[in-house]
Amino acid sequence: MRVALVEDNAIFCFLFKRFLEEYPARKIEVQLFSDGKKALDYFVSTKDEPSFHPNLIFIDINMPIMNGWELIDNLMNYKFEFIHNSHVYIVSSSKSPLDRSNYREYNFIKDYITKPIDREGIYKILDEYISDESQ
């Protein structure tokens, strides 16, 4: 399983990656991107290589260079099919009603998760993905 995290907070990235590496049900390959531009550049460079695309994507909203909404819009503009086949989650410390309502405009985004997120919360999402995948 491949999981991408697009997040600029180094501490959150460290913890998130550690939780994924310790996930007992399946080996997980973790891709970390510190901003939306780095993630977009990677996805553009691997557009014709679906095996490099993530099964789950966690995207922060507030990042430098390219924020989460800009990344999502660019992924749609480039017509990346994997966003419709992956489980996409917004992970943000923003409790703004505008941010929370924006995610509903994208039918492929599974949920809006407010930080902090703990190990059990991440594992629940991974378990749900595995359950959906096996159906």
TrEMBL record:
Residues of the Response regulatory domain: 2-130
Lineage, highest ranks first: Bacteria, Pseudomonadati, Bacteroidota, Sphingobacteriia, Sphingobacteriales
Protein name: CheY-like chemotaxis protein
SMART domains cross-referenced by the UniProt entry: REC (SM00448)
PTM annotation (4-aspartylphosphate): residues: 60
Pfam families xref list: Response_reg (PF00072)
UniProtKB keywords: Phosphoprotein
Matches recorded under CDD domains: REC_hyHK_CKI1_RcsC-like
InterPro entries named among the record's database cross-references: Bact_response_regulator, CheY-like_superfamily, Sig_transdc_resp-reg_receiver
GO biological process, one term: phosphorelay signal transduction system
Listed transmembrane segments: none
